[in-house]
Amino acid sequence: MSKTAVVTGGSSGIGLQTARRLLADGWRVWSLDVNPPPPHCATPLFMRAEMFSYLACNVSDIASTQAAFEQIQNQTEKIDALICSAGVLRAGRLVDQPPEHIDMMMNVNIKGPWLSTRYSVPLLKNGSTPGHPARVVFVGSISGIRPKVGTGFYAASKAALHVLVGVLAVELADANILVNAVAPGTVATPMICEQPGPEGIGTSFRPSGMSPLGRIAEPDDVVDVILFFLGERSCYVTGTVLPVDGGTRAAFSPK
């Protein structure tokens, strides 16, 4: 019997690649996003209605998130995994950031994963056992560990998300639900590629660029670790934030 996952932010970047990889591995996938999957996803993997469903959902909105999970609950008794990949980045000096940008990052990056977890717990608990626990994986950021000038509030939101990982892991342990996070560095996703240049945002912010390994991450580099957290070899791992940054935060290099 195939496993079932809910992926937020499933129409772009890391979330989209997570959905693609899970479908290829035989998972049933529910994708929650404010936008539908892009046209290039009109492939056999995504067109099988019994394996893939897209639900329009704003994870920062209580009614929207609750309605999405109620719809899922009407069609399945349980889910095996929740992957929270929805996130937004608005660059700028902290003192110059418009309040609406702060509200957006707080609502999507913090409130969104919390709401998604809250409404998914009843489905995650069904069928989970100590030997076969359910999984929650958040997409955090290396900026939540090593903040950067120009994206201070984004970093703060991801640091707060990392705190939620530890608390949720302990609170949900007796329900046999494991909670972990990946903390990527710069990844070749639309969120990074669409950021305006420094002259457009009044800050010196730039993506981290090449890691010590000589490149930035591709989405699959992060998804590989997400799949590890969903697999049988991580049954005793919970409350962990794992950097996936090619060593970027390991030591400062003046190069």
UniProtKB/TrEMBL annotation:
**Which Pfam families does the record cross-reference, listed alphabetically?**
adh_short_C2
Task: Name the domain of life.
Answer: Bacteria
Asked if S-adenosyl-L-methionine is a keyword of the record, the answer is no
In Swiss-Prot or TrEMBL terms, this protein is called SDR family oxidoreductase
* Ligase is among the record's keywords: no
* Domain Ketoreductase positions: 3-187
Q: Which residues cross the membrane?
A: none
Coiled coil (residue ranges): none
Q: What is the lineage of its organism?
A: Bacteria, Pseudomonadati, Pseudomonadota, Betaproteobacteria, Burkholderiales
SMART domains from the entry? PKS_KR
Which PANTHER family would you find in this protein's record?
7-ALPHA-HYDROXYSTEROID DEHYDROGENASE (PTHR43618), 7ALPHA-HYDROXYSTEROID DEHYDROGENASE (PTHR43618:SF8)
Tell me which family the UniProt entry assigns to this protein: Belongs to the short-chain dehydrogenases/reductases (SDR) family.
Q: Which GO terms describe its molecular function?
A: oxidoreductase activity
User: Which keywords are on file for this protein?
Assistant: NADP, Oxidoreductase
